[in-house]
Structure formats: structure tokens, C-alpha cells
Amino acid sequence: MQMLSMLYPNAAAVSDAEVATYLAAKPFDASKALQMIGEQYWAATFFNEYEAFANWRRTGFPVLQPFGGEAIYDGNVTNGTIPRRLIYPGGEASTNADNFAAAIARQGANEFTTRVWWDK
Hints:
Elements: H1 4-7, H2 16-25, H3 33-44, H4 49-59, H5 70-73, H6 92-95, H7 97-107
Helix pairs in contact: 3-4
């Protein structure tokens, strides 16, 4: 909880007392261990978006809901849903055309909503 205070000492300072208060209010519950660990790890890696996304995809925690839903974001790249995967960079199709085409043939369209092989 205090790691961001090194980067943002004035904006993200959390005292030892605040940490103790938080931990007392949210004690470890072994029956929810994976959820609690997943949620805290996601929060800790929030500024490392690739790691936070990968861990959320791996664990399913925290349980996220698309912001606003389809009605607000109709027509965007995910149609209001949470992305399923990251896409290949824009220049990949031109600089690595053969391998890019082979990958797309194997795994599906280069879209944020295309499921990866392990995403059932």
C-alpha cells in the first residue's frame, strides 16, 4: 500500500496507521484466498497494464464489468465488452507478413475480442 509513495510522495502517502486500519477491516479469509490475492495483486500492478491485464485474465480477479456497457460504447473496437486479448502492432502485417498471416490463420482475427487458445 505504501509502494507508490516512493514515486508520488505527496499524492500517494499512506501512513502505517492507515495500513493497520485497512488490514483490521479486511482480515485474510482463507476461503477467499485466491480472490483476495488476485484483487490485491491487480491493484499492485495497476500501473503496469500488461501485467495487470495478464493476471486478471489468468485468475479472473477482480471480477470486472465493462464500463457503461454496449449502449454507450456501441461501435468501438470491443463493442462495450472487456478485451479478450491484445492485438498485434499495426506494422506487424507489413513487416512480418508471412508469420502474421500464419498466426491469424491459426488463432483468428487480429481483434481485441478474438479468444486466445486457452480462453474457453
